[in-house]
Design a protein that fits this description.
about 525 residues, alpha/beta, 5-stranded parallel sheet, 16 helices, 18 strands, about 25% strand, disordered N terminus, binds xanthosine-5'-monophosphate
Length: about 525
């Protein structure tokens, strides 16, 4: 990733200065699975962070005027051929450094310290003992529960360094030269309970950072930048009702008011009440110039007789683009296209070989916009993580129904009706799905359910209602826990909740006579049924 190549607006000004006014810490990515987490933890401590590949040049990094550098862990050994090495500037420039795990080993290795393969790989909880006071462990107990994950460790202090912590397996679990620090454990993971304090100490006491990265400050700075970028121009935005496009809309609207035109396409494949919610919130409460395009007939006509899931996706994606383009032509001209791109997308798209996982998801993005539009992009959330976007949304006054909304696929209910999609089936599914959502919402977020919905199956089964024999449809309930949708497990819903869901669906949704609960995990199943 090249900082200079990052287009569009960002909290860091494109002219090479930190125009946003936030103290910035750069996290250098040496390939750890926790690199993004480190960047998020720094943000949570109130300091703006940016994640860059380990070999980014000092010239590029210096433009960000970093107050500190964090070297992530990584899977390599410093002795591996071709292993990422310590950039020379890390020891040359006068900027505080925190090396975590592999980052620490790199410092030791560069300064004549000893790095050795431990007798056995240490993975899991451990205890460290603080052996010498230092700002890093300020106001922390001398014995800390930490999380370790390493094969190599530092066995001899590098020149100019003193040890500040040890563990039973790693005699040098922490070290410093007064300006740079190395720690063997992972402060960023939840299994290091006081890890946030260690990071905070580094940020505040070692780097002297102001902890001003808050939703309110971000909003002020983003508004200034949007105004600067857009000038007197007009901005078009595809509003899906999802968190990202909603927050982008609210933010841009606050910056430029009616010069933003959000276009909402009702594809007829939405959940119960969803289109009304969008109209209420954006059209009425926020008073936006909302273009509400009811294209449900067109979508349904094109989906008629189509049973193949990929074909459904293709049709919904294609029809979305057609509708969006014709609305843009109708209400234009526009100078800018706004998108709710988030920081993880930026990281993934600019580091193609590091994390292939996310790519699986991007092919799903049928809501993607045409590539031949000739607008400049406005992407005000480009440097935010998802939880930050939600916070910004709350601060902008968006309701919980939008800010805390569960992910919903672009092709909508079309991939939750197995087989042909008809208007009648959409109505059946909508009502069953509303019951599932209501009942699970009632349980509160203690269960941390990631997604929950109903799926309508093309199967009919026999039932009995009163004195009558019935022959109705089957509805599957899907509720999963997950961190990122890449893996998922079925949610252990209380039996009572399942009983209520089942009862209510068969009583309230005529046509459905049987309800089943999906107890498959991902993998091997997927979250959606199609
Ligand atoms: P699967 O079913 O692959 O879903 O386990 C993983 C996540 O992606 C969502 N999903 C989609 N999102 N367009 C989208 O925008 C799609 O075509 C699509 N298919 C699945 C799914 O809801 C889950 O969050």
């Amino acid at each position: 990733m090249k900082v200079s190549a990052l287009p569009t607006i960002a909290p860091t000004g494109d002219d090479g200065t930190t125009g946003h006014g936030f103290d910035t810490v750069v996290v250098l990515d040496f390939g750890s699975q926790y690199s993004q987490l480190i960047a998020r933890r720094v943000r949570e401590a109130g300091v703006y962070s940016i994640l860059l590949p380990w070999d980014t040049s000092w010239e590029e990094i210096a433009r960000l005027q970093p107050k500190g550098i964090i070297l992530s862990g990584g899977p390599a050994s410093v002795y591996d051929e071709g292993a990422p090495s310590l950039p020379a500037w890390v020891l040359r420039e006068d900027v505080p450094v925190l090396g975590i795990c592999y980052g620490m080993q790199l410092i030791a290795n560069a300064l004549d310290g000893g790095v050795e393969r431990a007798a056995h790989r240490e993975y899991g909880p451990a205890k460290i003992e603080v052996t010498q006071p230092s700002p890093l462990f300020k106001e922390l107990p001398t014995s800390l529960d930490v999380w370790m994950s390493h094969a190599d460790h530092v066995t001899r202090l590098p020149t100019g360094y003193v040890g500040i912590a040890r563990s039973s397996n790693a005699p040098i679990a922490g070290m410093t030269d007064g300006r740079r620090y190395g720690i063997q454990f992972h402060p960023e993971v939840a299994h290091t309970p006081l890890g946030r304090d260690v990071l905070r100490n580094f940020l505040v006491d070692v780097c002297n950072c102001q902890t001003e990265w808050t939703a309110e400050h971000f909003i002020d700075s983003a508004i200034r930048q949007i105004r600067e970028m857009v000038g007197g121009g007009r901005v078009l935005l595809g509003l899906s009702g999802g968190v990202d496009s909603s927050v982008a809309a609210a933010l841009i609207h606050r910056a430029i008011g009616d010069r933003l035109t959000p276009v909402f396409v009702d594809n007829g494949l939405l959940r119960l009440g969803e289109a009304d919610l969008v109209r209420d919130v954006f059209g009425r409460a926020f008073g936006m110039n909302l273009v509400f395009a009811d294209a449900s007939e067109r979508f349904l006509n094109r989906l008629e007789g189509v049973a193949d899931p990929e074909e459904k996706r293709r049709i919904v994606g294609d029809e979305f683009i057609r509708t969006f383009e014709s609305q843009a032509a109708l209400h234009g001209p526009f100078d800018f296209l706004a998108q709710g791109t988030l920081y993880p997308d930026v990281i993934e798209s600019t580091a193609p070989d590091t994390k292939s996982a996310m790519k699986i998801k991007t092919h799903h993005n049928v809501g993607g916009l045409p590539t031949d539009l000739t607008f400049s992009l406005v992407e005000p959330l480009r440097y935010l993580f998802k939880d930050e976007v939600r916070e910004v949304g709350r601060a902008l006054g968006l309701p919980a129904e939008i800010v805390d909304r569960q992910p919903f696929p672009g092709p909508g209910l079309a991939v939750r009706i197995i087989g042909d999609v008809t208007k009648d089936d959409l109505d059946l599914l909508r009502r069953a799905d509303a019951v599932v959502r209501e009942e699970i919402d009632e349980l509160g977020d203690g269960l941390r359910v990631w997604q929950y919905f109903a799926v309508l199956l093309p199967v009919r089964t026999v039932g009995v209602m009163g004195d009558y024999r019935t022959y109705g449809r089957v509805c599957a309930v899907r509720a999963v826990t997950s961190e990122d949708a890449m893996t998922a497990d079925w949610a252990r819903l209380p039996y009572e909740a399942l009983a209520r869901i089942s009862n209510r669906i068969v009583n309230e949704v005529h046509g459905i006579t049987r309800v089943v609960y999906d107890i498959s995990s991902k993998p091997p199943a997927t979250i959606e049924w199609e």
